[in-house]
Write a structure and sequence with these properties.
Blueprint (H helix, E strand, L loop, with lengths): L1 E2 L6 H11 L1 H7 L1 E5 L1 H9 L4 E7 L11 E5 L1 H7 L8 E6 L13 E6 L4 H13 L4 E5 L8 H7 L8 E3 L2 H10 L4 E4 L6 E2 L8 E6 L7 H6 L2 E4 L11 H14 L3
Helix pairs in contact: 1-2, 5-6, 5-9
Length: 253
């Protein structure tokens, strides 16, 4: 195992840049993962891991072919993006965020301008758990491979694809696959989410602040609502997505 002690070391500097800069992550095609559990999830999914960085005395469970570096505990702490570092960081090759030419699944979420990385990661994790086939990120969502997003996915980022594209491109892909697009919004055609046919569908989840954009709503074949008390106006985006995903899953049970 290599040993690095200098905060000026190129690898240390690279990790800091990847943690702090979306543009640097895209330029390098790399992102940072943290913690032994996330490392195990990445290895299990066959992700391309370039280097594992561990605190003194920590021996990560990974193949010997992967570059392994030991650093002082205080140095690792300075590289961590959490309040309680878990002793292991790793650099991972970013999956391709370009959508495929054809969608082969039947259930998708379209995330419309979602800004909170924690919400994005939680939705990603829930979509993986409930059998969705992928996420389509439109209108400048949070970075799917920021440290906070990746951490919130609990490994789903390594198993379930997420793609960034324009709203028109997302609609064209769904149309070509014969998948109707719905939105979680209120208008004349709104159905209770429990009554909508979502066994083969895509559903738009809007941003935390403004909800679903007018452009996205105009493209939807229908809308669904989640029943709740009248005194409550809305749900957190991740919670709303969880309810929708459960209804999608329930249709096959």
């Amino acid at each position: 195992m290599e040993r690095i002690t200098s905060r000026q070391n190129p690898l240390v500097q690279q990790i800091r840049k990847l943690n702090n800069s979306r543009s640097h992550r895209r330029t390098e095609g790399l992102f940072v993962g943290e913690g032994p559990k996330l490392l195990a999830e990445a290895l299990g999914a066959g992700m391309d891991i370039g280097v594992v960085v561990a605190a003194e005395g920590v021996r990560p469970d990974c193949p010997p072919a992967i570059r392994q570096v030991e650093v002082p505990e205080d140095l690792l702490k300075s590289l961590s993006t959490t309040e309680t570092p878990q002793g292991v960081l790793f650099l991972c090759r970013m999956p391709d965020l370009t959508p495929p030419d054809k969608l082969t699944g039947g259930r998708y979420l379209v995330l419309d301008g979602l800004q909170d990385p924690g919400n994005l990661g939680t939705i990603w994790r829930t979509a993986d758990a409930f059998g969705a086939d992928g996420l389509l990120l439109v209108n400048s969502c949070a970075d799917p491979f920021s440290p906070k997003t990746v951490r919130a996915t609990m490994g789903a980022a390594f198993r379930l694809p997420a793609w960034e594209c324009g709203l028109g491109e997302a609609k064209a892909l769904l149309d070509a696959a014969g998948i109707p697009l719905y939105a979680t919004a209120l208008r004349d055609d709104t159905l209770d989410v429990r009554e909508a046919e979502l066994s083969r569908a895509a559903v738009v989840i809007g941003s935390e602040g403004r909800g679903i954009s007018r452009e996205a709503l105009a493209l939807c074949a229908g809308t669904v609502k989640i029943p709740m008390r009248e005194r409550c106006e809305s749900l957190n985006a991740a919670v709303a997505a969880g309810v929708v995903l459960w209804e999608m899953k329930r249709s096959e049970m």
